[in-house]
Amino acid sequence: MTTETSDAVAVQDLVVTRARRPVLRGLSFRMPVGSVTGLLGPSGCGKTTLIRAIVGVQRIKSGSVTVLGLPSGSAALRARLGYVTQSPSVYDDLTIRQNVRYFGAVYGVSKAAVDRTIRDVGLVEHADRLVDQLSGGQRARASLACALVAEPDLLVLDEPTVGLDPLLRRDLWDHFRGLADAGTTLLVSSHVMDEADRCDRLLLLREGRLLADQPPAELRAVTGADNLEAAFLELVLATERGETVETVTAASEVEV
Ligand SMILES: Nc1ncnc2c1ncn2[C@@H]1O[C@H](COP(=O)(O)OP(=O)(O)OP(=O)(O)O)[C@@H](O)[C@H]1O
C-alpha cells in the first residue's frame, strides 16, 4: 500500500505492544481527506492505542503512521490536528468561553470563531459558567469546542458522544458531517454501533486486528446483517469458524 496525497492518514503494518503485550497486531488502512471514519470495537480491543499512534503519542514497535503526509508526531502537525480524549481536558476554574478563548488564542483565532464554536457544540446558554459546575456531557462538549476552535485538518475524537442525549448526538453528527464536507478528516471512536451509519467508512477492530475496513452499507451487505451490531457479531463468528469474508474495500474505491 502506498500513501497517496488524498490520504489524511495512512497506516502500514502497525504493531504496538504495551506492557510487553501485543495490543495492535499489524494494521494497515487509509483515511481519505474529507472522510468520516468510525473506529469501532469492544472495550480493550485497542481503539485508544490506535488513536494515540495517529496523534503521535504512542511508541510503536514497527510499521508506519503517516498523517497529512508527515510521520505522526511531527511538530508541524501540532496545529493541524485536534484530539479530544475520553476524559475532558478543560480547565475547571475557567468558564467555557474562557477555555475556548484560551485554546483559540494559541492558534490566533478570532473572538467570532470562539463564539461560533461554542454555538456549534450547543453551549451558548452555559458559555459563562465555570466548567466545574457543568454536567459530564457539557464538559465533554466544552472539551470538543476547544479542539474544534482551531479548525484542524484532522480531528480525532475518542468517544465524543458518551453521555449525550439523542438530540445532541444527532446535532453533533450533523456538525461532523458539515466539517467533513468542508474538507476536514475525522476519526471518531465508539463502542456503540448506532452512530456508525453516519460514517463514510468503518474500521472494526478486535483484539488488535482489523476485522473490517469498509463503508457501513457494504459491511451489512457482505455479512447479510441488517444492522451493524449484527454485522459485527457475524464477522466475529465467521472469523472463529475460520471463514473468509470480503471486508476490506480500498479507500480509493470509496467516494466521500
Ligand atoms: N498504559 C497502559 N499500559 C499497559 N497496557 C495498557 C495501557 N493502556 C491500555 N493498555 C492495554 O492495551 C489494550 C488496549 O487498550 P485500549 O485503551 O487501546 O482499548 P480501547 O479499545 O480503547 O478500550 P475502551 O473501549 O475500553 O476504551 C488493553 O488490553 C489494555 O489493557
TrEMBL record:
<protein>
    <submittedName>
        <fullName>ABC transporter ATP-binding protein</fullName>
    </submittedName>
</protein>
<dbReference type="InterPro" id="IPR003439">
    <property type="entry name" value="ABC_transporter-like_ATP-bd"/>
</dbReference>
<dbReference type="InterPro" id="IPR003593">
    <property type="entry name" value="AAA+_ATPase"/>
</dbReference>
<feature type="domain" description="ABC transporter">
    <location>
        <begin position="9"/>
        <end position="232"/>
    </location>
</feature>
<dbReference type="InterPro" id="IPR027417">
    <property type="entry name" value="P-loop_NTPase"/>
</dbReference>
<dbReference type="InterPro" id="IPR017871">
    <property type="entry name" value="ABC_transporter-like_CS"/>
</dbReference>
<dbReference type="Pfam" id="PF00005">
    <property type="entry name" value="ABC_tran"/>
</dbReference>
<dbReference type="GO" id="GO:0005524">
    <property type="term" value="F:ATP binding"/>
</dbReference>
<keyword id="KW-0067">ATP-binding</keyword>
<keyword id="KW-0547">Nucleotide-binding</keyword>
